């Protein structure tokens, strides 16, 4: 089946890089804030080009997400069908918290300085129209491992499966070419994690640690992370999402984290993953990864097509 995308998408499918900045902003009540945000978003392509050209080998890309609470005011466009604020998921032991955020900038490059420079110019343009909610700088750790020591991102879709998994299409014409994105900033208890034997860690993740081989699903009882995060619909079709997780942290202050970011054509797929992880499947048997990983944030955005962003300066 062909996947018709009438709009030019943002660079949602840009590759994983050595460095990434995750910037979450709220829009302030200052006079003219909305129009400043609109004109900045409309010119974001130009801003990205200005920075990217300074080292074309450094794979610079920025994607912009817009939150549910400001969608109407910032875009004036019909709402993407599934867009709503992140719904907290309360499991028996762990909770996926819901935290504020109106705008997400996912800034990527092989070079930290390009991410920095883009963010500097962006913040200059936005001025007092925004307030920073969270700014996290992530880095690549060896062969795309998370700080738990596992290769992270293996099961991501590749090639033609990427647009089919992440871009809204004919099911919601007004939102076509866009993508839902969910972010959660996790911090790990590395001391406790390192106290586990590697075999137990592997059973929790569902893959071997050194050579990243997928383990079989458990026949019953406690399921691994990769099993809980595998979603099939009622027809038995599996729905993938695109993850660009990055490690972050500071050994000096004892902070070790994973910034989770998942793009999807269907928000319900990520929501169902969170349900299965936090509540458990069967309920009660939550994802054991959460015993060592606590989400400090949880926010949902819609990443409209590039064409939609460019049109925001029309007033
Ligand atoms: C798989 C780590 C949170 C969704 C994996 C894998 C690792 C991992 C190591 C196996 C390799 C791979 O396929 O990438 C983590 C860490 C997290 C985290 C460290 C945070 C502390 C999440 C969350 C979601 C999620 C919050 C979704 C809401 C997935 C999916 C897979 C996966 C869809 C692939 C499953 C498959 O094999 O099809 N994760 N993850 N992860 N994770 Fe996570």
Automatic annotation (TrEMBL):
Keyword set includes Iron: yes
Dyp-type peroxidase N-terminal domain span: 14-140
Keywords annotated in UniProt: Iron, Metal-binding, Oxidoreductase, Peroxidase
PROSITE patterns the UniProt entry points to: DYP_PEROXIDASE
Coiled coil: none
Gene Ontology MF term list: heme binding; metal ion binding; peroxidase activity
Cofactor: heme b
Gene Ontology CC entries for this record: cytosol
Pfam families according to UniProt: Dyp_perox_C, Dyp_perox_N
InterPro entries: Dimeric_a/b-barrel, Dyp_perox_C, Dyp_perox_N, Dyp_peroxidase
Domain of life where this protein originates: Eukaryota
Secretion signal span: none
Stretches assigned to the Dyp-type peroxidase C-terminal domain: 144-306
Keyword Chloroplast: no
Record-stated family: Belongs to the DyP-type peroxidase family.
Protein name per UniProt: Dyp-type peroxidase
Organism encoding this protein: Lipomyces starkeyi NRRL Y-11557
């Amino acid at each position: 089946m062909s996947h018709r995308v009438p709009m030019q998408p943002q660079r949602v499918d840009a590759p994983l890089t050595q460095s990434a900045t995750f910037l979450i902003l709220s829009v302030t009540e200052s006079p003219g804030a909305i129009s400043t945000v609109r004109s900045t978003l409309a010119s974001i392509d130009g801003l990205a080009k200005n920075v990217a050209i300074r080292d074309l080998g450094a794979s610079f890309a920025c994607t912009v997400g817009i939150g549910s609470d400001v969608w109407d005011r910032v875009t004036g466009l019909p709402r993407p069908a599934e867009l709503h604020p992140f719904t907290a998921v309360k499991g028996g032991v762990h909770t996926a918290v819901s935290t504020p955020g109106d705008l997400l900038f996912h800034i990527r490059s092989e070079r930290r300085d390009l991410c920095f420079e883009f963010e500097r110019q962006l913040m200059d343009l936005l001025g007092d129209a925004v307030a920073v909610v969270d700014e996290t700088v992530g880095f690549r750790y060896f062969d795309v491992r998370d700080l738990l020591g596992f290769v992270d991102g293996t099961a991501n879709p590749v090639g033609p499966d990427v647009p089919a998994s992440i871009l809204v299409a004919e099911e919601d014409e007004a939102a076509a070419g866009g993508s839902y994105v969910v972010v959660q900033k996790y911090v790990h208890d590395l001391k406790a994690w390192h106290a586990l034997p590697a075999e137990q860690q592997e059973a929790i993740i569902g893959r071997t640690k050194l050579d990243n081989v997928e383990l079989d699903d458990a026949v019953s009882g406690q399921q691994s992370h990769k099993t809980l995060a595998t979603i099939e619909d009622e027809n038995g079709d599996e729905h993938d999402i695109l993850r660009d997780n990055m490690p972050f942290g500071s050994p000096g202050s004892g902070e070790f984290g994973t910034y989770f970011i998942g793009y999807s054509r269907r928000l319900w797929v990520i929501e169902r993953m969170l349900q299965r992880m936090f509540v458990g499947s069967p309920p009660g048997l939550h994802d054991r990864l959460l015993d060592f990983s606590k989400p400090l944030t949880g926010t949902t955005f819609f990443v409209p097509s590039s064409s939609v962003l460019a049109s925001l300066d029309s007033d």
